[in-house]
């Protein structure tokens, strides 16, 4: 199993809305690096749900429920989507400030590639974020 992080601006699509919807098609990605990450996601992979611009924090855990397929919002075959489902809201959101303050997370894509909307997360990064969130 691999780990990932997806970003959403809460005024466009929040964790609360995601939980109400019970599933989401992660569409509209128009960056090749982010697209490559979508293509690498496998069913069952875990995903950090990150609120960007407002809140700037990891707020929940999701999982990949369907591997990549053609993005229905465009006819261009270069762009793909995955489906994700919410697993749980974090006990304590983990802010970008907290992540940047942790020296062991200095190489995390969220810190190094701040604008990338779909990012890989290493096993160690995942565990550190879970520890910071008070999750086991």
Question: Can you describe what's shown?
Answer:
It is a single chain. The protein is an alpha+beta fold. The chain has five helices and six strands. It has helices spanning about 15-20, 30-40, 95-100, 110, 125-130, and strands spanning about 5-10, 25, 45-50, 55-70, 80-95, 120. It starts with a strand and ends with a helix.
- The number of helical segments is 5
The helical percent reads 25-40%
Silhouette: globular
What share of the residues does DSSP label as strand, in percent?
35-45%
Strand order of the largest sheet: 2-5-4-3-1-6
Mean pLDDT: 97
Integer-rounded radius of gyration:
14 Å
Oligomer: single chain
Give the helices and strands as they follow along the chain: EHEHEEEHHEH
| Poorly predicted spans | none
Query: How many beta-strand segments?
Result: 6
**Helix- and strand-based class?**
alpha+beta
N-C termini distance: 17 Å
* Main β-sheet description: 6 strands, mixed
């Amino acid at each position: 199993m691999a780990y990932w992080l997806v970003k959403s601006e809460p005024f466009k699509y929040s964790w609360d809305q995601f939980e109400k919807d019970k599933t989401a098609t992660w569409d509209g990605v128009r960056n090749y690096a982010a697209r490559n990450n979508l293509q690498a996601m496998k069913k069952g992979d875990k995903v950090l749900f990150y609120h960007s611009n407002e809140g700037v924090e990891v707020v929940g855990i999701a999982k990949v429920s369907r591997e990549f397929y053609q993005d229905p919002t465009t006819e261009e075959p270069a762009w793909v989507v995955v489906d994700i489902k919410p697993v749980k809201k974090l006990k304590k959101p983990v802010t970008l400030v907290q992540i940047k303050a942790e020296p062991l997370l200095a190489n995390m894509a969220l810190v190094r590639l701040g604008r990338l909307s779909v990012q890989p997360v290493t096993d160690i990064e995942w565990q550190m974020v879970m520890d910071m969130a008070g999750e086991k």
